[in-house]
Design goal:
Layout lengths: L6 H8 L6 E4 L6 H10 L4 E6 L2 H10 L8 E4 L5 H7 L5 E7 L4 H4 L26 H7 L2 H12 L4 H10 L6 H11 L13 H11 L2 H15 E11 L2 H14 L20 E3 L9 H6 L7 E7 L1
Parallel strand pairs: 1-2, 1-4, 2-3, 4-5
Antiparallel strand pairs: 5-7, 6-7
The structure holds S-adenosylmethionine (SAM).
Length: 305
Amino acid sequence: MHVPVLSKESIELLRPRPGNVFIDCTLGAGGHARLILERIAPNGRLLAVDRDAAAVEAARAALADVDPPPTFVQGDFGDLARLAQEAGVTAAHGVLFDLGVSSVQLDDPERGFSFRHDGPLDMRMDRQGRVSAARVVNELPERELAAVIRHLGEERWAVRVAKFVVARRPLHSTRELAGAVEAAIPRAAWPADIHPATRTFQAIRMHVNDELGALERGLRGALEVVRPGGRIAVIAFHSLEDRLVKSFFLAESRDCQCPPEQPVCTCGHRASVRILTRKPVRPSDEEVAANPRSRSARLRVAEKL
Ligand SMILES: C[S@@+](CC[C@H](N)C(=O)[O-])C[C@H]1O[C@@H](n2cnc3c(N)ncnc32)[C@H](O)[C@@H]1O
C-alpha cells in the first residue's frame, strides 16, 4: 500500500477550496488526489496525471467513489503545459508534484525498481518507454555508466561499480545488478543506514526515466498553467531533486537572473513567484515513525505572482 507523504502539510499549503481547479502531476495510488478532490467538491476539477498506465488504472478504481471524479491522463508531467491544454485546464489554483516512485511500483518485482526483490531490469515508469534499465546497464559505455552512477546516485564508488557491472555483462535481473554493486564496494565502505546498491539503483532509475529533465520541464509547465495567486507544491525525496526545485523557485522569485558580477541587468527577467517555504517542510517524527519512506521527504511551495 502507498501512504501519501506530507499530506497534511502539502494540503494546508496548497489550500484547495470548493470549485477550484487542481492538477496532481503524480497521481500514484491517489492518496493526495483524494484529499484534494474532497476539498474542491462539489464543483471543482482535478486533472490527475501519471506516467504509469497501471497506476492510472488502479487510481481510477480506488477513486471510483469520489464525486466529481478526476480527469485521468496517462502522460509525462514534463509535457504538463500540453497535457493541461488538451484537457482544457487553464489557470489552475494549484499543482502538486510528489516525486519518485510509489510503494506499489517498488513492491512489484516485475517492475524491476528494487534490489529487495528479484525481477527483470526494467525500471520504466511508462512501460512504453524505449529505454529500460537492462539497456542502460548492458549497453552504456563504461565511462558513461560511471558518470550516470556518480552524478545521479552521488555514489563515490561509481567508477568501480561501473567496472564490475561491465565485467559481468550481460546482466538480466535486479539481483544480478545488486550483486555487482555489493562486490564493487568494499564491505568496510558500505553505508550504515542504506543498502549498498541504493544509490546505483536510484541513478539508473533516474536516467531511465529522465527524472531531472522531466522535473525541470514540469516546473516550467506548472508556471504556465497556474493562475496568479495559485500555488505549486513539490515533494522531493533526495537532494538532487530538492536542489533543482530550490534553485528553480529561487531564480523565478528574482527580477534579474544576470550573473552577480554583471553591473547592469540585460536579461529583463521578471519575478514570477513568491516562495512560501524559506526552509523545506520536513515530516514530523510521528510521520517518519509511521511511514519510514517519508524520512527523506522535503516539501517546497511557491505562489505565482
Ligand atoms: C510518490 S508516487 C505519488 C503518490 C501519490 N501522491 C499518492 O498519494 O498516492 C509518484 C508517482 O509519480 C509518477 N511519476 C513520476 N514521474 C512522473 C512524470 N515525469 N510524469 C508523470 N508521472 C510521474 C510515478 O509513476 C508514481 O506513480
